[in-house]
């Protein structure tokens, strides 16, 4: 349900939003990537701008253009995004991590193009873990005791260990963020699509809230909720 305008306005707020999918280099011409289109992140940025916020937009690879009017920072890898996010977060009132961050990157990046050699085995790619940017943002915020609202996104499919909401609730606890926007993914579902359906989980005990429709509709619902949480969590 629509909230009164006084509670939804982000006027005077600095909102950092990450979007798109990171690319993890293998060599100068190749990378490991993911299917994130950046559409939901771009819609969030547009909604935050419409609500009066100053928007810092940290764009990993996207299939769409970032909206005009954001402070744009282009990033490639998870390590690039980490640096940009920690910097942008310093004076942000809100940080929304909508980017699909690679969990792993190649352990070695070749300075030169990897060539195939007749008679030799195909190379093995060893991967190492990337830092958890969202978790790090929460730890910094908590250490500083600052009044910053941190929002995560979760892509879940559900599996033998639990359904989408069980996984998401565990993730919310692990990450320690204030809100977690959860969507159910699968091949051809959500990624790259124009519609979305999400559940917004609260780290402060509020009931889960559903939002569905175009990515613009979902973005508007998330931005409304962020506005409401700012006044509720940090009155
Ligand atoms: N995220 C992040 N840094 C990472 C991985 C994810 O900041 N290295 C953020 C994403 O931007 C998102 C949230 O964490 O806001 C959840 O991402 P998700 O991939 O669902 O969570 P993971 O902790 O990586 O768990 P999983 O093993 O299910 O992928
Ligand atoms: Ca992940």
TrEMBL record:
**The protein's Enzyme Commission number:** 4.1.1.36, 6.3.2.5
The lineage's top-level taxon is Bacteria
What are the entry keywords? Decarboxylase, Flavoprotein, FMN, Ligase, Lyase, Magnesium, Metal-binding, Multifunctional enzyme
Cofactor needs: Mg(2+); FMN
Note on how the cofactor is bound: Binds 1 FMN per subunit.
| GO biological-process terms attached to the record | coenzyme A biosynthetic process; pantothenate catabolic process
Ranges annotated as spanning the membrane: none
Q: Which residues form a coiled coil?
A: none
Spans annotated as Phosphopantothenate--cysteine ligase: 15-235
Q: Which GO terms describe its molecular function?
A: FMN binding; metal ion binding; phosphopantothenate--cysteine ligase activity; phosphopantothenoylcysteine decarboxylase activity
Residue positions annotated to bind CTP are 103, 113, 131-134, 153, 171, 175
| DNA/pantothenate metabolism flavoprotein C-terminal domain location | 10-226
**Pathway membership, UniProt:** Cofactor biosynthesis; coenzyme A biosynthesis; CoA from (R)-pantothenate: step 3/5; Cofactor biosynthesis; coenzyme A biosynthesis; CoA from (R)-pantothenate: step 2/5
Query: Which GO cellular component terms are attached?
Result: phosphopantothenoylcysteine decarboxylase complex
Catalysed reactions listed for this entry: (R)-4'-phosphopantothenate + L-cysteine + CTP = N-[(R)-4-phosphopantothenoyl]-L-cysteine + CMP + diphosphate + H(+); N-[(R)-4-phosphopantothenoyl]-L-cysteine + H(+) = (R)-4'-phosphopantetheine + CO2
Q: Which family does it belong to?
A: In the C-terminal section; belongs to the PPC synthetase family.
Role description: Catalyzes two steps in the biosynthesis of coenzyme A. In the first step cysteine is conjugated to 4'-phosphopantothenate to form 4-phosphopantothenoylcysteine, in the latter compound is decarboxylated to form 4'-phosphopantotheine.
Spell out the protein name for this chain: Coenzyme A biosynthesis bifunctional protein CoaBC
Higher taxonomy = Bacteria, Bacillati, Actinomycetota, Actinomycetes, Micrococcales
Q: Which residues of the full protein are shown?
A: 182 to 416 of 418
